[in-house]
Amino acid sequence: MCVDGEYRIRDQSRWYVVHTLPHREAGAARQLEFQGFRVYLPLHHKTVRHARRFRTVRAPFFPRYLFVELNVARDRWRSVNGTSGVSHLIMEGELPKPVPTGVVENLAAIRSHEGVISLATLLQPGQAVRILTGPFAEQVGKLIAVDDQARVRILLDVMGASVIVHSERTTLAPAA
Predict the structure, then answer these.
(1) Phi, psi dihedral angles at 28 (to 5 degrees)
(2) Coil, strand, or helix at residue 159?
(3) Is 63 exposed, middle or buried (0-12, 13-18, 19+ CB in 10 A)?
(4) Which end of the chain has fewer CB atoms < 10 Å from its terminal CB, N or C?
(5) Could you tell me which of 123, 24, 37 has the C-alpha nearest to residue 65?
(6) Rounded to 5, what percent of the chain is helix, strand, coil?
(7) Structure confidence at residue 33 as a pLDDT band (50, 70, 90)
């Protein structure tokens, strides 16, 4: 959502966390940008199931949260709380609580060309992985191999039997 595509901090500014109303992250980000704030809303691909159909959509990586760049000494940061779609800034005492340095920059660094966070670069064979999209969404398996075209083989336990599933690397995340 950042206009210039750069997520590095300017001058004395820091990134802060905004808690949004349910399913209002994108609208809140647009409203904050309209007010002149720099905003970062990390997105990922998510499979939505409805009436026996699967659909892959871009969804917030952190549901109900986004990041806003502020200089608390200069900016009118209290106006963030009154923005449409925003519940409140995460606070520490009387001031907004800053995000640790490097968190937003590291998230932005692992974005794909579509602007979607891809945890695929962090994966190694033998690692437990969670499938993010498709009919096996939310299933946890073991990453067996990755080929040159970023296709992967995953060993899943399906109804008591071990099954090898082929997928794209970008549809996986490390299992928690």
Answers:
(1) -65, -40
(2) coil
(3) exposed
(4) C
(5) 24
(6) 15, 40, 40
(7) very high
The two three-digit tokens of residue 175, written as one number: 């299992």
Domains of the chain: 14-109 (3.30.70.940), 120-174 (2.30.30.30)
pTM of the model: 0.70
Separation in Å, CA 52 to CA 55, 90, 137, 139: 10, 38, 14, 17
pLDDT tens digits for range 41-64: 999 888 777 888 888 889 999 999
Q: Average the pLDDT over 151-175 and give the result.
A: 86
| Residue listed under structure tokens 């970023």 | 150
Q: What is each CA distance from 41 to 2, 14, 28, 125, 136, in whole angstroms?
A: 9, 15, 10, 30, 26
